[in-house]
Amino acid sequence: MIDTNVFIALERRGAALDVSSWGAAEDVCISVVTAAELLTGVHRADNEARHTRRSDFVEAILATIGILDFTLDVARRHAQLHAQLSREGKMIGAHDLIIAATALYHDCTLLTDNVAEFRRVEGLKVVAFS
After folding, report:
1. Which of 63, 77, 87, 116 is deepest in the core (most CB within 10 A)?
2. According to the model, what pLDDT value does residue 62 have?
3. Whether the Cβ atoms of residue 51 and residue 57 lie closer than 8 Å to each other
């Protein structure tokens, strides 16, 4: 599973979308939250050229990579994780909590540029993007 910030870094670098280095295309996925965050970036573009470039980039991602929904089963894992992290004083951001719960539920390794936050989640396999 790929975190939103990986795509943001690729888009800022002007890099083409190539998931082959992370695994077979059918094995690479994102959370529906990542899709929402990427689409928000399109709508926040401050000029038409940037809007078009971002839209093309995001639509290529959405057409290429599988999207995991926030289902009732994922919600149950999310609730458990929220309670645990809150109790331990290790809470992470709301969107990241959903991404983490989705990755845990589906037994995915998370590729992220936000290793410090996601490492707070016990049992979550995290790989740093560089």
Report:
1. 77
2. 94
3. no
Spans of the chain below 50 pLDDT: none
User: Which residues pair with residue 29 across a beta bridge?
Assistant: 66
| pLDDT at res. 17 | 73
Q: What pLDDT does residue 93 have?
A: 96
Which fold, 4-128?
Rossmann fold (3.40.50)
Q: Where are the domains of the chain?
A: 4-128
Residue 113 CB burial class (10 angstroms; 0-12, 13-18, ≥19): middle
- Phi first, then psi: give them for residue 15, nearest 5 degrees: -80, 145
Distance CA 106, CA 73 (A): 10
pTM given for the model: 0.92
